[in-house]
Amino acid sequence: MRRFFLLMLTLVTSLGLFGQPSKQTIYLYPEGPAESNGLEGKEVTIDGGRVCDVSNPRMEVFLPAEPNGQVVVICPGGGYARLAVVHEGELFAEWFNQRGITAAVLYYRMPNGHSEIPRKDVLTAVEIVRSRAAEWGVDPAKVGVMGFSAGGHVAATALTKYTSEQNKPNFGVLIYPVITMKEAYTHGGSRTRLIGENPKYKKVLEWSLEEWVTPKTPTCFIALSNDDRGVHNSNSTLFYDALYANKVPAELHIYPKGGHGWGFNGEKFAPYHDEFLASLDRWLKAVK
User: Does residue 216 carry a pLDDT above 60?
Assistant: First the structure.
């Protein structure tokens, strides 16, 4: 009788665990990246979950119990100096999983003046996600990117400067993103770390992503706060205007308060948190 009881307890425990979300770590370059960004410090985590000096980029892939086919590659922000992987990464990944959406938090490398490195990392991540689609229950035609602040620039780079159908996202979610490198509206720290102290104007235009929107740019959801003093609101509106001009379907939400960097649990953004998530949830269900 005791053996039967233990067997049943094991079975019930196993059934309780079955179907729970799981997580995988996927390195973008298993043998290490081919190029260096010139940063040689050891990767460290500081200040409540912000990661510095990523040298071997990777994805933390959150797999839902019942995947609905969608997947989002999440690019945390941090001014191209660090990655806010908790409130602009993991917490959103868990929220996505609750809705059946697979989520991959991208630990991309900082540019340190090597402008192409974040783009290479995010495009490689999109390619890997598509290559694992069957394994993860993902539809290759439902691959999105999401980015916050400077991570928004990374995500928007994938949307506008993809190099093939294999690494082109199907949709984008941009939260208080850095978009332009033009001096009047850019985020100074992000600009300096991406393109240097005194870039030529050609370089400025190369990484001002509103200039790279075309009718083939994927559909976007954009959200920010009216009182954002960290990244000028024109970054979002310039990108939205470019999408509108090119007849790309887009949705723009400007909330009254919240400041910059609210992520999943920003205190000042709390009055609009549920409204924001409800709008994003509705949009994701409708996006094609």
Answer: yes
